[in-house]
Give the backbone structure.
Amino acid sequence: MRIGIYDPYLDDLGGGEKYMMSVAAALSKSHEVSVFWDNQKDIDLLLQRFSLDISKVQRVKNIFAPNISLLERLPASRQYDSIIVLSDGSIPILLSQKLFLHVQQPLHMAKKGFWSAFKMSRVDKIFCNSNFTKNFVDPSFVNKTVVIFPPVTLYPKKVKKENIILHVGRFRVKNIAIGDYKKQSIMIDEFKNMVDKGLKDWKFVLAVSIMEKDKEIFDKLVESTKGYPIEFAINKSNKELWDLYSLAKIYWHASGYGEDLRIHPEYAEHFGISTVEAMGAGAVPVVINAGGQKEIVTNLENGLLWDSLKELKEKTLQLINKPALLDKLSIQAKHRAQDFSYEKFSEAVTNLIG
């Protein structure tokens, strides 16, 4: 089967891009897979960041580029048995035998009118990265929508853990219309507050990826941490991150805090790959009770969920002061992470495409 894959944000190095290239890698084992993209450097950077094996995947001319007309795109798309598109809510007109859409964040895709209904009729399946995302796809498409959780490749390392609270996430001055999407400055302030109130012998490590355009503001954030046991690991590869995951005892995540998620659900974490990675290394997640995090973590079973900053601090101190609880949840976190294996993802994607 000949399969084409298109991700309009392939140069962004985000979780959606890792997901789509994981789809390509999984399908390339038994199909001829191509990625529609013009710049090889973008793909090289993505592979360096995520350590993916897409050696069997071809890069071909991007038929979705703005300078490509519909009259040029249609015959090119006819050559494919299936095309898979990371959708921003829109539905492309293509002539492939099958069309699959991947939805990575809460999107209201339904639009009234004959033309929109026709385009949706051409879609075979919509697959989402979480039930949180799926719930925002219009109910009229429910029979076409399934959930395939992102794959998380685990690199367990047997090292002695240290008193580290870890956070992993992109640093963006502005993302999806809000500043500090990952709420990194808020977590920094809360950790500083804990230190001011007597926390000793613990440090907070933020592993962040940074774009050059955001560096000036990031430097100001770093400046604000002077005098506190706060460290930054910048633009690390996935394997390098595992050194940090393996050392950390606790993992923090706060996307969505302080936002009205009923109006803007996209401000919450849509799934939370870094949370699963941390759990796979035995770091106990203490994460916000919102978005896809609730599908990963069960409170007091394999981690802790919080709704307020007061709870974030109280539950973190609970783990610090109760080593037996920390050890118990660490073991259960490792078990839970196995549910998001690459093998399960690969099987689900292969079955979906047929």
